[in-house]
Automatic annotation (TrEMBL):
Domain AB hydrolase-1: 43-267
Organism field: Paraburkholderia solitsugae
InterPro entries (UniProt xref): AB_hydrolase_1 (IPR000073), AB_hydrolase_fold (IPR029058), AB_hydrolase_sf (IPR050266)
PANTHER family referenced in this protein's UniProt entry, alphabetically: MONOACYLGLYCEROL LIPASE
Coiled-coil ranges from the UniProt annotation: none
Entry protein name: Alpha/beta fold hydrolase
Molecular functions per Gene Ontology: hydrolase activity
This protein's record includes keyword Hydrolase: yes
Keyword annotations of the record: Hydrolase
Taxonomy, superkingdom: Bacteria
Length: 283
């Protein structure tokens, strides 16, 4: 039986066909998958997923927003239907991928909603082309970098993945990246199916990212920050610090009981506030 995520993904692809839009675009030699759905005449919102996830993690969020907004999701380098990469890249490259997607769709400006690494690249897109980013929705993310023990753990993850793929790490990753009692079987199955080759490049982008804390003052668009109270991957203190560092933050939302992916596991506490924020600052 198809999962609800798979059914939703197919529905999004049907919308793509109806709109006459191809589900891939090319940037920097990389073929990237995306879906353009929702209200075609509404303000555009681009959703960028977290590490080891893909665009379908926003399925329930888009359901709450699609009547008012043009909702665009994409699979970043190394993940989902975009697939493996064969060369190094940075989150600045991923930010340029996002901006190239706006160009491809002939969208002048949009709100950016980014979860974890999706937040890393969304903030960098706002620094690269501030006039094109009307608002930011940031979920479980931060402006600074990881401490050395965390970087070392990702180095170990790279080696374990090269040896045996997700076989030895899927359970730990489920707890780290999703958390709680949420049924993450759809994600663990996807990780087991991911190739070993090329995995080091997304990991290196994650661990090698630069600290943009001192540049946050240049991101002047309205922003809202969400963070799970029990996030084991990025402590909630980093979310609070990010909200304080952005000059035009309109709210910091603690999602009680949520881990690293509150928009996925606790959408009922994210969707309403996110929709309210976008309606107010995208109109």
């Amino acid at each position: 039986m198809a999962s609800s995520d798979d059914i939703h993904r197919r529905a999004l692809c049907v919308d793509n066909k109806r709109l006459g839009i191809m589900p891939f675009f090319n940037c920097d030699g990389q073929r990237l998958w995306y879906v353009d759905t929702g209200n075609a005449t509404g303000p555009a919102v681009v959703f960028s997923h977290g590490f080891l996830m893909d665009g379908s993690m926003f399925a329930t969020n888009i359901e709450a927003l699609r009547s008012d907004f043009r909702c665009i999701v994409w699979d970043q380098r190394g993940f989902g239907q975009t697939g493996a990469v064969d060369k190094p890249f940075t989150f600045w490259d991923s930010a340029r991928d996002l901006l190239a997607l706006l160009d491809h769709l002939e969208i002048g400006s949009a709100a950016l909603v980014g979860m974890s690494q999706g937040g890393f690249l969304s903030m960098r897109a706002a620094l690269l082309e501030p006039d094109r980013v009307r608002a930011l929705g940031l979920i479980s993310t931060r402006a600074d970098v990881d401490v050395q023990p965390v970087i070392d753990s990702f180095v170990q993850l790279k080696q374990m993945w090269a040896d045996s793929g997700a076989a030895l790490v899927a359970d730990h990753l489920r707890s780290l990246l999703i958390g709680g009692d949420f049924d993450a079987s759809r994600w663990t199955r996807a990780w087991h199916q991911m190739p070993k080759a090329g995995f080091e490049y997304p990991v290196d982008a994650l661990t090698g990212r630069d600290d943009i804390t001192l540049r946050l003052q240049k991101i002047t668009c309205p922003a809202i920050v969400f963070h799970g109270s029990n996030d084991p991957a990025i402590d909630i203190a980093h979310g609070r610090s990010l909200a304080l560092g952005l000059p035009n933050t309109k709210g910091f939302v603690t999602v009680d009981g949520a881990g690293h992916a509150p928009n996925l596991t606790h959408p009922q506490f994210v969707n309403g506030l996110l929709r309210e924020f976008l309606l107010r600052y995208m109109s």
